[in-house]
Request: fold
Amino acid sequence: MSGRIDRRQDFPLLVGPEGAELTYLDSAATAQKPEVVLAALAHYYRYDNANVYRGVYSLAARATAAFEAAREKVARFIHADPDEVVFTRGTTESINMVAWAWARAELKPGDEILTSEAEHHSNLVPWQEAARATGAELRFVPLSEDKTVSVDSVLGAISQRTRIVALAQVSNVLGNLPLEVARISEAAHRVGAVVLIDGAQSVPHLPIDVHAMDADFVAFSGHKMMGPTGIGVLYGKRQILAAMAPFHFGGEMISHVDPEVSTYKDAPQKFEGGTPPIAQAIGLGVACDYLSGLDMAQVMAHDRRLGELAASRLREVPGVHVYGPRGDRMGVVSFNLDGVHAHDVATALDQQGICVRAGHHCCQPLMRQLGVAATARASFYAYNTEQDVDKLTAGVLSTMEFFHHVAR
Ligand code: C6P
Reply:
């Protein structure tokens, strides 16, 4: 398993006159899109554009067939069944759907919601609100020394009162190796709790088999896996989705409507009220096929190799602090330079054509745990190469020299 992938030529933004000069290291925020995805979007709008489920004419039937074919592709990508795939706007909406539709019906005072202080705000704030609305209590898994979540600490924190365990499989700041979800699911199910996995940073980067993970919910975003923005997924186990009330009410999620009362379609349609993001779903389906064609085991090996290389190179630079695991890691590397604000680092790198994100990465409690206000973050994907790591390292070195020269 070499994990050497070089697909830059498939990404128009990275080969155009400006793009050729770019070192794009912000895929954890959003990934670039391959030509096949862009072509699928254009093809849909040029030849197949109609609303889904509503029309009886053949153009509308074609749009509906393409939309449902996309659901099948996404389901295949995560080893789910199509009726377990709910299309949403992204990870944030997927988690909110569970925090509203599932949690408000299932939680009561005395119940516990188990999460961690390393979560993205999208997997924390909805649970704060669910706790407030139901009287349930928020509990936090103790973090390891490197501030990651370990399976053992999750197992130790699950109690007879735990009703839901909500954790990211890979942190968008720390780039830890994926949590072994199956072990967490087994322990959670033993006490009657359900498991929600925030897969925003894992589904795009590793082979995912939701049935093997045995998680009850998995949330992820299309735009981080080379698909369009505006589309995401909530995977849910069939029996849980069947019992769960809808979240959005309106057109096309109903079965029968009387003035006073309505009945709803089965999942997944009962969760997809209103006109769905049709082109975006089709684009996501094509992105899943593109990634499968690269082989997700290779994608993971590639991203890991670059992440580990970048972390070790940056650690060799005096005055650079790299956060997260010391050894094995995914392709997400957060760091700071002594005496230089992360935003200044990102601005200086931008002047050298290197795109990294700087800030709290929507993880303020984690920043507090790390004892910093912000970090710079480089993240890698299938269009990055070792040369990008070289440019990053050289860019960080010259940034350090510049600021320390100015400070003298
Ligand atoms: N993290 C980052 O730069 P949305 O915005 O709904 O597509 O994804 C939210 C989200 C949830 N969980 C994790 C672990 C994430 O990383 C993200 C998005 C981006 O780190 C944008 S803040």
User: Anything to note?
Assistant: Residues 28-29, 90-92, 120, 122-123, 168, 172, 198, 200-201, 221, 357, 361-362 surround C6P (CB under 6 Å). The chain has two domains: 8-31+296-407, 37-293. The chain has a mean pLDDT of 97.
